[in-house]
Amino acid sequence: MRHWWDSYRALAFRTTDYRKFDGALRMVIASTPAQRMQLETYLEAQYQHGDLVYGLHITDRAILTCLVFERMGRQVHLVDGAEGGYALAAQALKQRLSVSEPMVSKNEIR
User: Fold this and answer.
1) What is the pLDDT of residues 6-54, one digit of tens each?
2) Alpha-carbon gap, residue 74 to 67, rounded angstroms
3) Which helix (H) or strand (E) element contains residue 85?
4) Mean pLDDT for the chain overall
5) Are 12 and 79 a contacting pair, CB within 8 Å?
6) Could you tell me if 102 and 94 are in contact, meaning their C-beta atoms sit under 8 angstroms apart?
7) Which of 82, 88, 83, 42 is nearest to 62 (CA)?
8) In this structure, is the dihedral angle defined by the CA atoms of residues 41, 43, 45 and 48, taken in order, positive or negative?
9) What three-state secondary structure class fits 79?
10) In the structure, what pLDDT confidence band is assigned to residue 107 with cuts at 50, 70 and 90?
């Protein structure tokens, strides 16, 4: 039984969509509280300098949606943060965009 799980776990990792690149980087990240604070400090400094605009949503859980076409074959796993995930991060991003004049055009963020 263990061998099956090891093989499936490797397949799931390879077929998981946890980052999106479509003019902006969207990513689900697991971290310690200290790592999160370091990332937030960096992002805020870059935002204050006018180099980027960001939105975050913090939760202690993730949601995994699986589309399985073949048990050990074609499949896609979509990861999002629980309690709002990408949608609430986008809301935070749009709030920042509404109060600043970033280098990124509002038309590039959807």
Assistant:
1) 777 787 777 887 677 677 788 889 999 999 999 999 999 999 999 999 9
2) 9
3) helix 85-99
4) 84
5) no
6) no
7) 82
8) negative
9) strand
10) very low
b/e burial code for range 61-100 (CB count within 10 A of at least 16 → b): eeeeeeeeeeeeeebebebbbeeebbebbbeebeeebeee
Report the distance separating Cα 21 and Cα 51, nearest Å.
Answer: 18
HSE of 78, CA atoms in CB hemisphere, 13 A: 10
Task: Calculate mean pLDDT across residues 68-74.
Answer: 81
Type of residue numbered 64:
L
Six token digits for residue 5 = 């799980």
Residue type, 30: A
Cβ contact 77:66 at 8 Å: yes
30-33 long-range contacts, Cβ below 8 Å, gap at least 24?
30/62
